[in-house]
Design goal:
With about 500 residues, the chain is of the alpha/beta class. The chain contains 13 helices and 20 strands. Helices cover about 35% and strands about 25% of the residues. The radius of gyration is 25 Å and the shape is elongated. It starts with a helix and ends in a 7-residue tail after the last helix.
Amino acid sequence: MKLLFLIALICLFPQSKGNPLSNGSDGYQRTFEDIKREIAGYSEIAKKIINLAVHGKAQNRSYERLALFVDTIGPRLSGSRNLELAIQYMYKALKKDGLENVHLEPAKIPHWERGEESAMMVEPRKHTIALLGLGSSIATPPEGITAEVLVVTSFDDLHKKAQEAPGKIIVYNQQFVNYGETVQYRVRGAVEAAKVGAKATLIRSITSFSINSPHTGIQAYQSDVPKIPTACISVEDAEMMARMSSRGTKIVVTLKMGAKTYPDVDSFNTVAEIVGSKYPEQVVLVSGHLDSWDVGQGAMDDGGGAFISWEALSLLKDLGLRPKRTLRLLLWTAEEQGGIGGEQYYKMHKENISNFDIVMESDEGTFMPTGLAFTGSSKACDIMKEIMKLLKPINITDVFENGGGTDINYWIHDGIPGSTGGWHPKRQRWGRGEPKMPETKKCASLRDDITRYFWFHHSQGDTMTVQDPTQMNLCAAVWTVVSYVIADIDEMIPV
């Protein structure tokens, strides 16, 4: 009798393997094994997505769409007519593609133009220096600035030579370590030089490889420090002046920059959706940014990321797949100026943050994909690893740490300033202390072979020639499988 009682008691409690991750509506706690089995059930759908993207009628589609776009529009600087045309182009293209809820959401964005610019070494010989002014830089006087050069290798070197700096043009010849570390010279170079009395700065481009091409990008002034003109020069010219300086040769440069900052202008984030069949209010967001710098074509940064995000919705539409949650495409505006479009979108939608299952951005190129970078809890990461197993047919299954992007990091970090100073490299803006943490922090970004990315980044070299259709097909397959499965599994990814 006791044995029968114990058996009956045991049957009252569900037996589980693994950790319970979430509660069903009936109160039953789903285990990780339950989640694994559910995800594994998407194997055939994943194969259909991969086959369509890589081998089927959609093969090379994202590449061809991107080529038409950049060849038609060209570079798309924040505040420019080209960016406005690009947004209207994409609005019509998404409508024509039959996507749902295609619309534009307003944003106010910066409008800076470089104008005419030049740099000439006049002593010890005449030499034209290749340069690109940095975003938000002020202009020189119309006659330019002619001054002796002081070459430094680091901020520490600048401070050691501070007594020599007043009235000089500072040339930074820092070595490239990695982008996150070395970009500090582009961002802070003018401020640090102005603090010691310099007239202007010429900064070695933030790249590991150069064919005498300068790279532009955003820089940040400080309100309590005088503003001085600032530009990037090629690696070759920075190294040449460093060699000359080491020999004791006097170098004099004439710098002319016609840069101008105009009042902020109206712009838009571009949105399209496949509306969820069961939980339409819940959102899986895939994105890339539509703007670029005013050099090259913006094909790599970030045309590729924007167009594989569009492709994710197109592939699902072609297959007649409608996930339970809404899959939302966001094409951000003014990312290059500090994630301006992303920040304003976040502020407009953060009251519904609990409805955002995950936010994804592709903005590090669409070269050969190696996996997915993810930010989230350990439970969420375990689920992402199971989803990535569905990509075994193309051998792209790895999950890396630190997923995010300039536009989507607002969903990880609230972005509200605190109390101390510091530059956030990925967020591309000045903050004042550690940001507050919002209700959710699940972000993902495409991880690919980034070896060549900074060769072309923010330069005239960022053109369609950099892009490879086969690699874009694979990137689109990864992006689509991941976003679809997250949007369709029974429950949201746990926080």
